[in-house]
TrEMBL record:
Pfam family, one: Pyr_redox_2
PANTHER family: NADH DEHYDROGENASE (PTHR43706), NADH DEHYDROGENASE-LIKE PROTEIN RV1812C (PTHR43706:SF45)
Domain FAD/NAD(P)-binding: 1-315
Protein name in the entry: NAD(P)/FAD-dependent oxidoreductase
Superkingdom in the source lineage: Bacteria
Similarity field: Belongs to the NADH dehydrogenase family.
């Protein structure tokens, strides 16, 4: 028997850990139940940190962890999924295709930044969506030091006033001063179509975010979209042109395109609709998890968000349940009643909220310390020690805040 997991992000990593954990508990050998993880590299990209400087350092190796728990790593990119034949076609790094059969398949392919067809966006826009994108932005920021001092050079526009956009915008002043000097007259602007900043955060946290932006000198342009980009800057939907050498696109994400190969219903974000045990109901043998799945967190209408907090726990349930089906034990319904947010606000500290109503619990330096602990400890893979690694993937304990 074989479980194939596609993706080595937070959801894929915990899927592998959890499936191996249940296999170990049931005393089943890796020869009897193989767990294979498919990804271009055996590396976890710490995506929530890609707004920070030195993005090339924001990865964590997975190969030793996978070896410790007897999970097979298959290097390559899944190109084609044949759900009728239960087969995945994989393009290896040397471009040699191979096929891998499965008894259970877990789609943990994550999400991608939504890039609309806006004139000039592909040529002139940057992002912090992927490791390569973040490295390109970091190189661009350092290259600014070779340009003459000007308003255009010193201006950064962030398109998107959600979580990612706010973290990118509030970190940029520190990053640019380290590159251009403390005397550089910086201008940071967040652009968003919504009438308020951080539309999903709610009325409670918003005044704290607005105060942080004022403290950092970050401007906002609300109720306006992006019409076009060019070498001189950005033009908004209301006709305003902002001269800027740097435009960072942070306006929404969608599930990775591979989900479209599963013949099942999807939501507006491209996520596969799944049952409470994270199965794709209409496709036997297929599970989806993390940003690839629209999953109910409880019985009162809350659904998992596209975040690593939800992805880790969803992965733990998906891995457990994929293995449970093959081992003849009951599956566990995914649930995630505890939910927190911790928003980095750069030199203004951070904001920590709890619950779906986002009740504010910590702000400023205290919240910043928690954010740093989350970013540098909590979200990293477990150590490559078998017992500890398997124990970390107990579905009922993962990210139980």
């Amino acid at each position: 028997m074989r479980i194939v997991i596609i993706g080595a992000g937070f959801a894929g990593m915990y899927t592998a850990l959890s499936a191996a954990r249940l296999r170990d508990i049931k005393g089943v050998s890796p020869d009897e139940l193989e767990i294979a993880l498919v990804a271009p590299e055996p590396t976890l990209v710490v995506r929530p940190r890609l707004y920070e400087p030195k993005p090339e350092t924001l990865t964590a190796p997975l190969l030793d962890v996978l070896k410790a728990i007897d999970v097979t790593y298959v290097q390559g990119s899944a190109e084609t999924i044949d759900t009728a034949a239960r087969m995945v076609k994989i393009a290896a790094n040397d471009k040699t295709p191979t096929s891998l059969s499965y008894d259970r398949l877990v789609i943990a392919t994550g999400s991608r930044l939504f890039r609309p067809n806006i004139p000039g966006l592909a040529e002139h826009g940057f992002s912090v969506d992927s490791l390569d994108d973040a490295i390109a932005l970091d190189k661009h920021l350092h290259d600014l030091a070779r340009r003459p001092d000007s308003i255009t050079r010193n201006t950064v526009v962030v398109a998107g006033g959600g979580f990612t956009g706010i973290e990118a915008a509030t970190e940029i002043p520190t990053r640019l001063r380290a590159i251009l000097g403390n005397d550089a007259k910086l201008r940071i602007i967040i652009v968003d179509r919504n009438s308020a900043i951080a539309p999903d955060m709610g009325d409670g946290p918003r005044p704290i975010i607005e105060e942080a932006l004022r403290k950092l000198g970050v401007e906002t342009r609300l109720g306006a979209g992006v019409a076009s980009l060019d070498a001189s800057g950005i033009t908004l939907s209301d006709g305003e042109h902002i001269e800027a050498a740097t435009v960072i696109w942070a306006a929404g994400i969608r599930a990775a395109p591979l989900t479209t190969q599963i013949p099942a219903e999807r939501d507006n974000f491209g996520r596969l609709l799944v049952s409470r045990d994270l199965r794709v109901p209409s496709v036997p043998g297929v599970f989806a998890t993390g940003d690839a799945a629209r999953a109910a967190c409880d019985d009162i209408g809350n659904y998992a968000l596209m975040s690593c907090q939800h992805a880790t726990r969803m992965g733990a349930f998906a891995g457990n349940n994929a293995a449970a089906e093959l081992l003849g034990v009951p599956s566990r319904p995914y649930h995630q009643k505890a939910y927190v947010t911790c928003l980095d606000l750069g030199e203004a500290g951070a904001l920590f909220t709890r619950g779906w109503d986002r009740n504010v619990e910590m702000i400023g330096d205290v919240a910043k310390k928690t954010k740093q602990e989350i970013n540098t400890v909590w979200i990293y893979p477990p150590k490559a020690e078998r017992a500890a690694a398997l124990a970390s993937a107990d579905p009922e304990r993962v990210t139980d805040l």
